[in-house]
Amino acid sequence: MKLNISEKTLQDLEFTTVLKQVAEFCISDLGKEKTQQIQPFNNKEKLFFELNLVNEYISSFENENRIPNHQFDNINNYIKRLAIENSYIETNAFLKIATVTHTVNEIKKFLKKFKIYYPTLFELSEEIEYTTIVSDSIKKVILSHGEVSDDATPTLRQLRKNIREVRSKISESFSKALSHNIANGYLDDIKESVIDNQRVLAVLAMHRRKVKGSLLGTSKSGNIVYIAPQTTLGYTRDLQDLLYEEKQEIIKILRALSEEIRPFLPLLEQYVSFLIHLDIVGAKAKYGRIINAVLPKITDEKKVFLKDAFHPILWRKNKENGIKTIPQTIELNEKQQIIVISGPNAGGKSITLKTVGLLQVMLQSGLLIPVNEHSETTIFGTILTDIGDNQSIENQLSTYSYRLKNMRYFLRKCNDNTLFLIDEFGTGSDPELGGALAEIFLEEFYDKNSFGIITTHYANLKVLANELDNVTNANMQFNERTLEPLYKLFIGQAGSSFTFEVAEKNGIPYSLINRAKKRVETEKVRLDKTISKLQKERNKLQKTSENLEKQHNKGQEHLENLQEKERKIRQKLEGFQELYDNNQRMLSLGRQLNELLNKYFQTNNKKELSANFFKWVAQEKTKFTKKNPPKKKTKLEKIKDKKIEKQQKETLKKVEQEVLKKVVEVRKEKKIENEKIAKEKANYVFKIGDRVRVEGSRSIGVIDRIEKKKALINFGMFTTETKIEKLELVKG
Questions:
Q1: DSSP string, 224-284
Q2: Contact 225/217 with Cβ under 8 angstroms?
Q3: Which tens digits make up the pLDDT trace of 407-418?
Q4: Nearest-angstrom CA–CA distance, 521 and 624
Q5: Which terminus of the chain has a lower count of CB atoms within 10 Å, N or C?
Q6: What average pLDDT score do residues 493-507 get?
Q7: Range of weakest confidence among 17-26, 57-66, 270-279
Q8: Tens-digit pLDDT profile for residues 550-606
Q9: Edge-to-edge strand order for the sheet containing 691-694?
Q10: What is the pLDDT of residue 527?
């Protein structure tokens, strides 16, 4: 993809300001420096790769698998020094190199573990090699606090052992000299001091000749002289020799370590580049999170649809000042390739223009943009801008001359893959002549199928926009009464400049405004007046539309509430139905069990009871199995089920035994009751008028006559004669 986005375009769109804001989120100076050098990508694959990196990084803020810390020190100078043959670096420098390698390796391990979440970041990390050789080599030689380990070489170990022994002798000999001179009263009250990192005796000046040793200094007053005891001087010289040998051995070790690491310098450079890139990606993601940025759909279809788009610099500034920023929705496509925005100044025309251009440049530079997630756009090979006062003092060009040179450049570069943005199109010259030339330029852009947005006050450009098929007028809305800007873009109608209205609002006498109107061509005033009137009508229609939409939203909300209530009622009904079905089932089971027991009471046949009971249980089990087919079970589940089945059989057997015991008890109770009834029956003397029932019958009659052991029973419709012993008295 051949890219043509000039430095001037980036300045016009304040892209450098955005980069400075992004750089604030970098964690390294190298990252900040590289961030401010970001340019739009000229390769689509690299651009999509970068956008996916940022999108994955920003998603890490929303889940538990946060990207590990990738703070790092700048080791580039150490790498350059190590590249020099037979050179070496300090121990702290080696530790910083080890930290960098450890950081990269930890990130690689993390991204490998979570490559499903972060596939693009994983792909980036796969470009570099995982190795612990460098850090392991350094850790073997240098301790965490920056000192070379005693175990680095046998020579160093022996030297340090000797140093410790000599220091012990120095301390011992100095203590003896100190005690001796204290006893003799040669020392001042402070007794000792330290000069050149060496312990010395604080000897009173009057006794200096009595103390053997080397004079190393005196106090300011001259009352005290500082003497290194003679007994320690020999040991001190031995210590200096050993310390020198230690230093030479350490240099030798560091040179060897440098030689060991030197083959890995290209890898270390890759590590630094990787961490810088990750720092930039992280900064882009953090900035994107602050401005509520997303990755819109990037399509091969030639179109721009930015829904609820914000200018990020303006949004952040307004937020700091507690001002609400109005989002804009702008669309460019084959049927609306150029938008001509008109209307009064200070209405937001230029900001709208810059918003589209800046967001497009940000996206093509690998930054997410503050738009609605349903936005779409394409990638432009050329982005051209002419925004602001471009008078060139250096080249002694007027604004108009400069703009003409710009237009010449635009006409040469414009094609069907161009986005052009021109503020105050055609200004800088005679309105009629400049307007006519502007028309020609606009037609040229139109014929080359370029996409673009222009702002203008010229009426002829508004008329031309209505005449060309794929060019659309638009305006920034104003309150027609207060003439306050609403900062909302309206597509489909040109805007009035409200020239005379604004003048009147700002206190210009009406008589002067009328004189001005008379000097302007009548048709132009009529056109502006018509546009102004149409704009007012459209504002009224828009308010009506907004009210209707609010009512629609309220109705929709009410409908949703009713649907929610209906859902809850349906859930309750389902619950009641389920409860009713369960109750019916329990009643059915109870009736069947009751029938079994009644039959047993009549027959006293245990085998028949047992057979019928198990047959009934089997039928119920079959019904249940049909409704709830069993799932395939594992061996463990089968073993468990066998145990449960065994327990159930044992329980069933117990229940059966309890039922039989209960039956026996019921039979006894029934027998006693029958005997009682029989006894009462035998003792009872029936008389005429008693209500009775024949055994085995449900019909109730009245005794009409009694003769010996027989009685005549009147059942209403008929009478019958039966033996008194077969009668049952009906009480009540």
A1: EEEEEEHHHHHHHHHHHHHHHHHHHHHHHHHHHHHHHHGGGHHHHHHHHHHHHHHHHHHHH
A2: yes
A3: 888 888 899 999
A4: 94
A5: C
A6: 62
A7: 57-66
A8: 888 888 888 888 888 888 888 888 877 878 777 777 887 777 777 777 777 777 777
A9: 719-723, 710-714, 700-707, 691-694, 727-729
A10: 54
**């003679």: which residue's tokens?**
230
Q: What is the full DSSP assignment across 341-400?
A: EES-TTSSHHHHHHHHHHHHHHHTTT--BSS-TT-EE---SEEEEE-S---BTTTTB-HH
Q: Please, which residues bridge with residue 213 across strands?
A: 229
Q: Which among 12, 281, 269, 11 has a CA at the least distance from the CA of 121?
A: 281
- Report the chain's terminal Cα–Cα distance, integer Å: 109
The CB-side HSE value for 687 (13 A sphere, CA atoms) comes to 3
Angle at 514 (CA atoms; ends 509, 518), nearest 5 degrees: 150
**Cβ pair 465, 473 in contact under 8 A:** yes
Rounded mean pLDDT, 149-158 = 93
Q: Which two tokens stand for residue 539?
A: 């504002």
pLDDT of residue 499: 63
What does the pLDDT read at residue 402?
A: 73
What CATH architecture applies to the domain 298-520? 3-Layer(aba) Sandwich (3.40)
Q: Are 34 and 379 in contact (CB under 8 A)?
A: no
- At residue 333 the predicted structure's pLDDT band, cuts being 50, 70 and 90, is very high
Q: Can you tell me the distance from the alpha carbon of 658 to that of 666, in angstroms, rounded to the nearest whole number?
A: 12
pLDDT of 285 above 80: yes
Residue owning tokens 């930039």: 280
Please tell me if the domain spanning 7-149+259-294 has the same topology as the one spanning 151-243.
yes
pLDDT tens-digit series, residues 172-182 = 989 998 898 88
Distances from the Cα of 499 to the Cαs of 505, 517, 607, in angstroms? 10, 10, 111
Domain residues of the chain, as ranges?
7-149+259-294, 151-243, 298-520, 684-729
Q: Which CATH number does 684-729 carry? A: 2.30.30.30
% pLDDT > 90, the chain: 40
pLDDT average, residue stretch 427-452: 79
CATH number attached to the domain at 7-149+259-294: 1.10.1420.10
Dump pLDDT digits (tens) for 249-279: 999 999 999 999 999 999 999 999 999 999 9
Counting runs of H as helices and runs of E as strands, what totals does the chain give?
21, 19
- Residue 75 vs residues 96, 124, 265, 267, 268: alpha-carbon distances, Å: 7, 21, 11, 12, 9
Any residues with CB less than 8 A from the CB of 75 and at least 6 apart, and which? 93, 96, 97, 100, 268, 272
The DSSP secondary-structure symbol of 425 reads T
Q: Give the separation between CA 137 and CA 152, rounded to whole angstroms.
A: 11
Task: Say if residues 270 and 9 touch (Cβ distance below 8 Å).
Answer: no
Give the Cα separation of 215 and 203 in Å (integer). Answer: 10
- Look at the block and give the residue holding tokens 């198990």: 614
**Structure confidence by residue, pLDDT tens digits, 89-113:** 999 999 999 999 999 999 999 999 9
- Of all helices (H) and strands (E), which one includes residue 723? strand 719-723
R_g (Cα) of the chain, nearest Å = 51
Provide the CATH topology of domain 151-243: MutS, DNA mismatch repair protein; Chain A, domain 3 (1.10.1420)
